[in-house]
From TrEMBL:
Belongs to the cytochrome P450 family. GO terms for cellular component: endoplasmic reticulum membrane. This is Uncharacterized protein. InterPro entries: Cyt_P450, Cyt_P450_CS, Cyt_P450_E_grp-I, Cyt_P450_sf. One of its GO terms (molecular function) is iron ion binding. It is a peripheral membrane protein. Transmembrane segments: none annotated. Heme binds at C427. Pfam families: p450 (PF00067). It comes from the Eukaryota. Signal peptide: none annotated. Its main location: endoplasmic reticulum. GO terms for biological process: hormone biosynthetic process; progesterone metabolic process.
């Protein structure tokens, strides 16, 4: 029986491969040799540090090159060509990959992050952004919510023994997103908080390169084995989380208690049915927690690895705030903290290839033809570690974002720093993430000095050793805190 199934799958793959090879238009960009039949370059990409390989290939083949993955061509875009893809020609490159796993996970592309730009996508983006209230008067609300959760989190840092800060950060970030989204405060032991944690943990596993065969033959997820179980568990965890958030926030709407993003989304749903609303709850909850947690974790490691940087940050906090708690407005008088956050985001480049895009029509990029429907990977890690734009790229230097007067260099002079992407698909939670990162790091270093777990054993964070699974993850580490 097993033989029949394998033979059947192999023949389907062959048919799809032959169809793509002989019937589809081809991209004319150069790239590494095709690799194995059918699999193409898949085994070379099947690597947790694939982002380094993408940089090596850029040196060999230039800013625009192609890979063959299974039955598809993927174009990797590097250097300032990324700006063209995301901004200048954003309309042509603004699609999302219509792969089977994306479709299943997002319940038929009912999601901001996975959907092609159409009327529904526009509406979802508009109401999610309106609901997040990240600008103007909404900032004070996010500040109030964040500071309460940050204080609780920092109480957990008051320890004499070394500890791994990950769980405390993650609980704080989830706590904030729950209040911002649902208008209620839940403890870390609430079943919904636990469901979010589970969905967040399984999400990157479902999109690993090792499961990419499901994009070609999706029904293989019905065959019982360890790998497909991970995928199915991730789907089940996502559906459970979405349903519970939906039910709980609907009861708020019925009570006319409109004070969270999801209340606003639910009461605003014009022509979007509830499956879209559930998709948006997933967008905001998963994207809103996984990314910020990973970024704060690496910022803490960097302050321990670079004690002189930590000292400068604390001096600035002392001068500007003293014992007063920060507000987001204080960032304007704290250029070193701002530069530290920018440099941490560059150094980490957690969304190493953004969320892959797809061409919406036949295009020409740097003289190469790229057919409609081709996957595009904007190599943000490569851009942020490209000598042409960031000299000595593997050195951690907040000063690179300061001018001769010690002020942060203006946004238009740092257009090659794009940790949140840019253009029409730019991250919708950028402002929320920036507020949380600034308030957290400032309050943390105001309260504590961070030290290695043992003398001479700092985390030694090197972004080249990170592991890529949706977002970049550094290794676990422990720190010690000394109260100031
Ligand atoms: C440090 C934190 C964060 C980083 C580094 C980050 C980074 C990114 C990047 C690189 C993209 C893809 C841009 C592209 O494909 O061109 C993106 C998209 C997105 N992000 Fe974020 N993000 C962060 C936090 C958040 C938060 C807090 C939320 C929600 C509350 C969020 C929600 C989204 C959504 C929904 C999209 C999809 C947008 C679309 O496809 O139209 N992100 N983010």
């Amino acid at each position: 029986m097993l033989f029949e199934i394998v033979a059947f799958c192999a023949s389907i793959l062959l048919v799809i491969y032959a169809f793509n090879k002989y019937s589809r238009k081809k991209c004319t960009a150069p790239g590494p040799p095709h690799g194995l039949p059918i699999l193409g370059n898949l085994l070379q990409v099947f690597d947790k540090q694939v982002f380094l390989k993408l940089c090596d290939w850029q040196k060999e083949f230039g800013d625009v090159y192609k890979l063959n993955l299974f039955t598809e061509e993927v174009v990797v875009v590097n250097g300032d060509a990324i700006y063209d893809v995301l901004v200048t020609s954003g309309d042509d490159y603004g699609g999302r990959v219509q792969a089977a796993r994306n479709k299943i996970y997002s319940n038929g592309f009912r999601s901001i992050g996975f959907r092609h730009p159409d009327k529904e996508w526009k509406t979802m983006r508009r109401i999610a952004q309106k609901g997040l209230k990240q600008y103007g008067e909404g900032v004070a609300n996010i500040e109030r919510i964040s500071m309460e959760e940050i204080r609780e989190c920092l109480d957990k840092f008051d320890k004499t023994e070394p500890f791994d800060p990950y769980d405390a950060i993650n609980d704080m970030v989830i706590g904030i997103i729950i209040i911002v989204s649902m208008g209620v405060k839940l403890g870390a032991d609430d079943p919904l908080h636990q469901k979010i944690k589970r969905a967040e943990k399984l999400f990157p596993l479902a999109f690993g390169v090792d499961l990419s065969y499901l994009d070609v033959v999706p029904w293989l997820r019905n065959l019982p084995n360890k790998a497909t179980k991970v995928f199915n568990d991730a789907i089940e965890a996502a559906r459970e989380m979405e349903s519970e958030i939906f039910q709980r926030s609907m009861s708020n709407v019925e009570k006319s208690k409109i004070d969270g993003v999801f209340d606003a989304i639910n009461s605003n749903n014009e022509y979007l049915d509830k499956s879209f609303i559930k998709g948006m709850t997933n967008d905001i909850t998963i994207a809103g927690t996984m990314t910020t947690t990973a970024q704060i974790k690496s910022m803490i490691a960097l302050t321990v690895d670079y004690p002189k940087v930590q000292q400068k940050l604390q001096d600035e906090i002392e001068t500007v705030l003293g014992q007063r708690l920060p507000t987001y407005e204080d960032r304007r008088s704290m250029p070193y903290m701002e530069a530290f956050i920018l440099e941490s985001m560059r150094y980490m480049s957690e969304a190493a290839v953004a969320i892959p895009h797809e061409t919406l029509k036949d295009v020409t990029m740097r003289g190469y033809f790229i057919p409609k429907g081709t996957q595009i990977w904007p190599n943000l890690y490569g851009l942020h570690h490209d000598e042409r734009f960031f000299p000595d790229p593997y050195a951690f230097k907040p000063e690179r974002f300061l001018d001769s007067k010690g002020e942060v260099i203006p946004a238009d002079e740092r257009k090659y720093l794009m940790p949140f992407g840019a253009g029409k698909r730019v991250c919708i939670g950028e402002q929320l993430a920036r507020i949380r990162m600034f308030l957290f790091m400032t309050t943390l270093l105001q309260r504590y000095t961070l030290c290695p777990e043992r003398e001479g054993c700092p985390p030694n964070y090197d972004s080249r050793k990170s592991v890529l699974g949706i977002v970049m993850q550094m290794h676990p580490y422990k720190i010690k805190t000394v109260k100031r």
